[in-house]
Structure formats: C-alpha cells, structure tokens
Design a protein that fits this description.
Order of helices and strands: EEEHEEHEHHHEHEHEEHEEEHEH
CATH topology of the largest domain: Rossmann fold
Largest sheet: 6 strands, mixed
Number of domains: 2
Radius of gyration: 25 Å
Structural class: alpha/beta
Low-confidence stretches: none
Length: about 300
C-alpha cells in the first residue's frame, strides 16, 4: 500500500530542554486508519501538530504525499484536515457560515452542494442556521470535523476526537469516521481510549514519553504480544500449588479453587500437554477449564510499564 506520510528521524526539543519527541520514524499508508495510542503527555498532539505545520520540528523530515512540510508547506497543508482537541470556533457564527468560511480559507470555490451534503453526513443539517454557541459539546465537535473536511482534504487528523463526549455519541462518531475512511480519506487519530483504537484503527502506534514503542496492525499486535490464560476449576480446593509444579508458574485464586496457567500463543511448545500430565500425576482433578486471550488494554499497559 502506498504511503501518504513519511516521518524520518523526527525530534522536538523545546527551549527549556524538554524533549517532547525522540527520533520518531513512521510511515502512514494511504487509505488507512492509524491510531496513535498513548497516555497523556506521550507526545501524540506534538507529533500531529508538527505534521500539520502548527509546531516546528527540531530535527528530522516529514513528507506528505511526497511534499516536504517545511519547504512545500502549501502543498502539504491543503491536503490535511485537522480536528484539534480544543473546541475553537467562532461562537456567534452559524454552522453554515463557519464551514463555508473554512473552505474559502483554502482557496476553494463556493460549493453549497458539497457543504450541504457534508452537514447532512455529520447530522448537522438541521442546525445549519444555528449559532455555534447554542450547540451542545457533541455538536460542536461535529462542526470541527465539518470545518476540517470543508476543503476536501485527503488526510484527516483527529486529536482526541471523542474527549468529553458521551458513550452513545462516541459510537456515532466512530461510524461517521469509518464512513469517511471508506470514501478514501486517510484518518490519523490520537486517543488514550483503548476501546477507540480497537474499534476503529487498522494499525496502532503505541507512544510513550515521546517515543513510538511499536506500530502494528491490530491482528499482528494481538498475535505477537497477546498471551492466553488457561484456567482450571478444581473439584476440591487446594491449600497451595505443589512445589513440583513451580516450573509451570501456576497461580492459585484467592478462594483456592482455580489454577491459572499463562502461555504465549506463538511459542512452538505451549507446555499445556506437559502440565496436564503433571496435574494427572499429582491427582489434581478439575471439573472445567477455559481460556482467555489478552486484550489490547493488557498489551498496552504491559508495553508502557516495560518501557
């Protein structure tokens, strides 16, 4: 798949010496949804602010559709739409006027049909003549998306798009973003909601303390780093795990009725067969067993802690 953004050896060091980004290398593919996942302060907003031309990099190079973001700023900026984390709109303007004005800022000809369809797609048509100050927080967020899409960009950046939005509206916005992506728009979103990344993204970049820890597709991430737990529901409770079973690193539940064994799905030998033989030899009987796969949240927490 063709890349639309290429980031090479990117660093950002502020005047006081704080390093917000440390040697970022990332390729964003045309037509994908990429989630930048990380805790607050990981550097997600700084990264997209640099790509969008709001913040200057200290070192490194970024190309958008083959154009350099510094020397060919106009070519890169017109291809990008940005929905910032903060709601910054003119409170006294109507929805229609503010979206049309954003389109004109990029030198686009007036197109009432396009703007009208955009507002309909974002469920804003009935509010087109309303002043922005009268809208709810969720509606204002949709207006920000409409402004970002007003000039028909190829790439859409969403910085914490559902921050402060209730659960039902969050799911509605996910559907709208996925529909935009299906129309050909490349989407990059920053989030610290694990569920958001898992629901929407094709690939996930995990960031922490200004570094990208890894970038993988959701499927590969689960396969490479996901672990499974095999739990045995015991017929009779046991006081403690026998010392002879210590090599299996079994965990005994607080009620002494469940033994848990963790293993990596990618290992050639999971050790399950040997464990079952050991349980039989020790006459440890169980009435049921079940497996559980690590979630994306488990993987994320483990990555951040290990870093």
């Amino acid at each position: 798949m063709q890349s639309v953004i290429q980031i090479s050896n990117l660093n950002k060091i502020y005047q006081g010496g704080f390093q917000a980004l440390n040697n970022i290398n990332l390729e964003i593919k045309k037509g994908e949804i990429l989630a930048l996942l990380g805790p607050n302060g990981a550097g997600k907003t700084t990264l997209i602010s640099i790509i969008c031309g709001i913040v200057n990099p200290s070192e490194g190079r970024i190309e958008v559709a083959g154009y350099d973001i510094i020397s060919q700023f106009r070519e890169t900026r017109k291809r990008i739409g940005l929905v910032p984390q903060e709601l910054t709109t003119d409170a006294f303007e109507t929805v229609w006027d503010t979206v049309c004005f954003s389109r004109e800022l990029f030198g686009k000809k007036r197109d009432d049909h396009y703007v009208g369809q955009l507002l309909k797609d974002l469920s804003l048509w009935e509010k087109k003549d309303a002043q922005i100050m009268t809208l709810s927080g969720g509606m204002k967020r949709r207006v920000m998306i409409a402004k970002a899409l007003s000039h028909e960009p190829e790439i859409l950046f969403l910085d914490e798009p559902t921050a402060g939005v209730d659960v039902s509206l969050r799911h509605s916005m996910w559907q709208q973003v996925q529909a935009l992506n299906q129309s050909g728009v490349t989407v990059i979103l920053t989030t610290h909601y694990i569920e958001e990344a898992e629901q929407m993204a094709d690939r996930i970049s995990v960031m922490n303390k200004g570094e990208i820890l890894l970038t993988e597709s959701k499927t590969c991430l689960m396969q490479k780093l996901g672990k499974k737990q095999l739990s045995f529901e015991l017929v009779e409770p046991m006081a403690a795990v026998p010392e002879s079973l210590s090599t299996h690193r079994l965990l005994l539940s607080k009620d002494n009725r469940v033994l848990t064994y963790q293993y990596n799905t990618n290992d050639e030998e999971t050790g399950i067969v040997a464990l079952l033989e050991e349980l039989k030899r020790h006459q440890i009987e169980f009435k049921d067993m079940h497996t559980q796969q690590s979630s994306l949240e488990d993987i994320f927490i483990e990555l951040v802690k290990s870093k």
